[in-house]
Amino acid sequence: MSATLIRSLIPHLPRFAEEDGDFYSVPRDVLIDTLCLQHSIERVLAENTVALLETLLDTLAVLNTEYLQKGAWCFVSFPAQLMALSVLTALSDSESHLFSPNFWNTQGVSNDKKNQQRDVLNVVETARYKNHASQQAQPIRYCYVAWCIIKLDDKILFYQREDTQKRFDKSAGDYGLLGGRTNQQDIPSTDKAALLKELQAPDSALIKSALPETLKRELREEAGLLFETHYTFKVIIHTPANFFHYS
C-alpha cells in the first residue's frame, strides 16, 4: 500500500521550471486530500504518509523551508525537483534500487568494494554533520577502543597499519599504537542480539569492563605478545569522545 500511495502522489507534486525559474507550490492538505480521495483511506494514514515523505524531502533539502512553514510544498529548484522525483520514484517501484543488491555486502568482497562503501558513507555522514542546524549531529557509530603504550629502552613500540587506505593518509600516518576495537570475541555471551546492542550502545558498562580482554587480544594478534602478570592496566577515559583506552 505504501508504494501505491507514493506512486499516486507523484503527479500531484509541485513543479519548478527547467528554464526561467517559474514554479508553483501545493498545500500539504491538498496532498493529503488527494490520497484520501484516490484510495478511500482514513485521513490519519494519509497524513502520516505525507508527513513521512515531507521529512524525507526536507532532509534532502529539496523543499523550500519558507513554504513548508506555511503548510505547503515547493521545490527550491528544478534539480531539487528531479532529486525528489528520483527518490520517490525509487520508493514507489519495487524494481528500483539506489544501489546494486549486493553493494553493502562485506563478506568475500574486494577492498575496492569496501572502499566504495566507505566513500558513500563518508559523503553522506560528512554532509549530515556539516549541515546540522545546531551543529550537534548525533553519531551513528560508537567504538570502544583499547590501546597501549609500550616503552623499551626509551623507545615506543608502534604497529604498522593494516588499513592500506589510511597508511598513506598524512593525517593518520603509517604507524599507530598497539590496540584496536572491542568485538564479540572479547565478551563471553550466548545472547548475540544483546551483545551486539551493547557493542553499538553509547555508554555500555559491559563493554568497558571487557576492554582489558580487548587489549590482550590485540597485543597477541598485532605483536605476538602474550599477557603476563607483570603487565598493568591504567584506565584513562576520554568522556567527550566516548573513547576508552588502557595503558
Key attributes of the depicted protein:
two-stranded antiparallel sheet; 247 residues; mainly alpha
Notes on the protein architecture:
By secondary structure, the chain is mainly alpha-helical. It has 2 domains: 2-92; 145-246, no CATH class. Helices cover 43% and strands 11% of the residues. The chain is built from 10 helices and 10 strands. It has helices at 2-9, 28-39, 43-59, 65-69, 78-92, 111-130, 164-167, 192-199, 205-209, 211-223, and strands at residues 26-27, 72-73, 145-147, 151-152, 155-156, 159-160, 175-176, 179-181, 235-238, 243-246. Strand 4 (151-152) and strand 5 (155-156) form a beta hairpin. Helix 1 packs antiparallel against helix 5 and helix 2 (28-39) crosses helix 3 (43-59). It is elongated and about 75 Å long. Mean pLDDT is 88; it is low at 239-247.
Short description:
With 247 residues, this protein is mainly alpha-helical.
Averaging pLDDT over every residue, what do you get?
88
Counting helices, strands and paired strands, the structural category is mainly alpha
Count of alpha and pi helical runs:
10
What is the number of beta strands?
Answer: 10
- Our estimate of the beta-strand percent is 5-15%
Order of helices and strands: HEHHHEHHEEEEHEEHHHEE
Spatial order of strands in the largest sheet:
1-2
Principal-axis shape: elongated
Distance between the termini: 56 Å
**Total domains, how many?**
2
